[in-house]
Write a sequence for this structure.
């Protein structure tokens, strides 16, 4: 059977779950446009620019809380229930926003929406990483970048079903997702891991103790470099950069704000086909190098343009912001998110992803409230980000382990071999005993 036919049900689920990315991206883009319009200022009457900033800050802080809550809810009620709840909360937050006539009401809507988005951004990577076959996990996670919500028709995650003792249901889900042969082997791996983890007595505190702390450090490192390598700043600085290059005029750089998201969107299709073929570390290293080169060249060209505004070579700056975002999308946005969502064990995955996602939102909050350095240091800001990319490359090269084509259970044993070997030895009972305690609903 052709692989595409074998995984067709999995692809449909991934596409369904990922519809929300489009909605979240649309909401963010529309909101950013609205708060800059005179009509919004006349209606809301904000007390200075900081009022709008406080609104976005409240959104980001609420997303931190939503991310943390989602980790607990995903373990207790199931991954798909978190997606349903986050969708409902986002709908409520959006309704409050569109019906707002005062700034406090608008901020309340942002807070409610932020909680839902934070929960959604935690629930989707958990769900996608657990239903995806090992050889297609990056491809499935790439769909998250193309779209995002609609978890109402999603089925249960097989690993969560095993954790709740519902073995027959887990077997049926795996059979539909991955085919009969792979389902049988994967179910056995899941049961072995679950048996080991029952004796490890893993809890929230285990995330901060050795050897799980190593996984937490790897995940938080990935989330940190996702946020601090310039992805949020460069897109806001690009219009002024193009203006200095003579590619647009002041207050009319719509080209930059539309073209970059369009390029990012189309570059995501590259990930659908190629990311799983070369591995996470490969893409992270290649992407970080291209980002560093793009930032360095942008810094040099902007400094030259500041010294000589009429310099004939100023147009050479055009491709570098696009190169930066294409390779940030392929590396840190997709390969990085895939890596951060697959290295935890089943019992800790929801909590680990929740904490790391909350860290990402917290860093995003600080990026939002910190004054821009672009006007203060000009082209030097790009050089600062290039140096951060250099640190990121060292992190990827020496701290991360390649997980290409591995099942989630195989990743557990590669990253923590002694930990799981000892636990499995202490388990004692046979795997088949798990099915004796099975219950169905």
């Amino acid at each position: 059977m052709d692989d595409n036919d074998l995984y067709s049900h999995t692809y449909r689920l991934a596409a369904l779950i990922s519809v929300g990315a489009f909605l979240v991206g649309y909401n963010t883009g529309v909101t950013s446009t609205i708060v800059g319009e005179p009509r919004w200022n006349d209606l809301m009457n904000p007390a200075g620019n900081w009022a709008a900033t406080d609104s976005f800050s409240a959104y980001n802080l609420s997303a931190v809380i939503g991310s943390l809550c989602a980790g607990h809810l995903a373990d207790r009620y199931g991954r798909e229930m978190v997606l349903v709840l986050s969708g409902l909360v986002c709908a409520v937050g959006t309704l409050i926003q569109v019906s707002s006539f005062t700034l406090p009401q608008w901020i309340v809507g942002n807070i409610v929406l932020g909680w839902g988005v934070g929960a959604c951004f935690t629930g989707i990577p958990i769900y996608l990483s657990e239903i995806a076959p090992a050889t297609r996990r990056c491809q499935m996670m790439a769909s998250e970048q193309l779209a995002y919500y609609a978890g109402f028709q999603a089925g249960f995650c097989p690993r969560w079903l095993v954790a709740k003792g519902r073995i027959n249901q887990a077997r049926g889900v795996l059979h539909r997702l991955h085919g009969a042969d792979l389902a049988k082997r994967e179910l056995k791996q899941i049961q072995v891991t679950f048996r080991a983890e029952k004796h490890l007595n893993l809890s929230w505190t285990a995330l901060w103790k050795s050897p799980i702390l190593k996984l937490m450090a790897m995940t938080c490192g990935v989330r940190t470099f996702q946020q601090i390598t310039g992805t949020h700043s460069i897109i806001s600085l690009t219009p002024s950069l193009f203006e200095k290059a003579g590619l647009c005029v002041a207050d009319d750089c719509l080209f930059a704000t539309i073209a970059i998201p369009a390029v990012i969107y189309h570059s995501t299709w590259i990930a659908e086909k190629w990311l799983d073929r070369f591995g996470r570390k490969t893409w992270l290293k290649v992407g970080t190098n291209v980002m560093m080169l793009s930032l360095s060249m942008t810094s040099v060209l902007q400094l030259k343009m500041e010294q000589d505004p009429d310099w004939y070579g100023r147009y050479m700056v055009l491709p570098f912001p696009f190169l930066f975002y294409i390779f940030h999308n392929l590396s840190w946005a997709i390969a990085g998110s895939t890596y951060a969502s697959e290295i935890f064990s089943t019992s800790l995955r929801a909590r680990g992803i929740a904490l790391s996602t909350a860290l990402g939102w917290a860093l995003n909050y600080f990026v939002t409230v910190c004054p821009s350095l672009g006007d203060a240091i000009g082209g030097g800001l790009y050089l600062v980000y290039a140096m951060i990319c250099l640190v990121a490359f060292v992190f990827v090269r020496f701290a991360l382990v390649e997980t290409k084509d591995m099942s989630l259970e195989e990743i557990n044993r590669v990253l923590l071999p002694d930990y799981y070997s000892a636990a499995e030895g202490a388990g004692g009972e046979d795997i088949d005993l798990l099915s004796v305690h099975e219950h169905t609903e």
Observations:
- The chain has two domains: 7-158, 206-420.
- The domain at 7-158 is CATH 1.20.1250.20 (Growth Hormone; Chain: A;).
